Amino acid sequence: MTKYRLQVNGKPHEVDVDPDTPLLYVLRNDLKLNGAKFGCGMGQCGSCTVTVDRAPVMSCLLPVSMVGPRAIRTVESPGTRWVPGVVLRQAFVEEQAAQCGYCIAGMIMRATALLDAVREPTDAQIRAWMQPNLCRCGTHLRILRAVRRAADALTAAPARKKR
């Protein structure tokens, strides 16, 4: 066992785990942040997606020893009105993008990373960015509409334009 200091959702945490422990297990078991889900354990579904320094990461594949001091953000991350994750959550509700809800945290985190990286994404960019994450319920078109809705809302937001 080794002690690791992690920065999760803006707060410091210390965990004592095996270096090979996937970040997903640390988030769920040690920090009790259950938004990221265990789907396949092989990085093929995206239900475990979180962001590390604003980049989407499948946390089932990332050993905690590789995280270091980088900022981890999960779907539980609080935010202000114009933070992409907050706007995305509302857009997913408005577009009725969730059915069973299992993939949604990963979808929101992948989309959050997109909206952090690309100011005004095209529909093609949204499709390409979201492609690694799977939804077994088949709400992909609603999910894409939700990301588009959030992107449009953020583009129109006065706070977003000043960045």
TrEMBL record:
Keywords: 2Fe-2S, Iron, Iron-sulfur, Metal-binding, Oxidoreductase. Transmembrane segments: none annotated. Residues 2-78 form the 2Fe-2S ferredoxin-type domain. Pfam families: Fer2, Fer2_2. InterPro entries: 2Fe-2S-bd, 2Fe-2S-bd_dom_sf, 2Fe-2S_ferredoxin-like_sf, 2Fe-2S_ferredoxin-type, 2Fe2S_fd_BS, Beta-grasp_dom_sf, Diverse_Oxidoreductases. Gene3D superfamilies: 3.10.20.30, [2Fe-2S]-binding domain (1.10.150.120). This is (2Fe-2S)-binding protein. It comes from Massilia agri. The lineage of its organism: Bacteria, Pseudomonadati, Pseudomonadota, Betaproteobacteria, Burkholderiales.
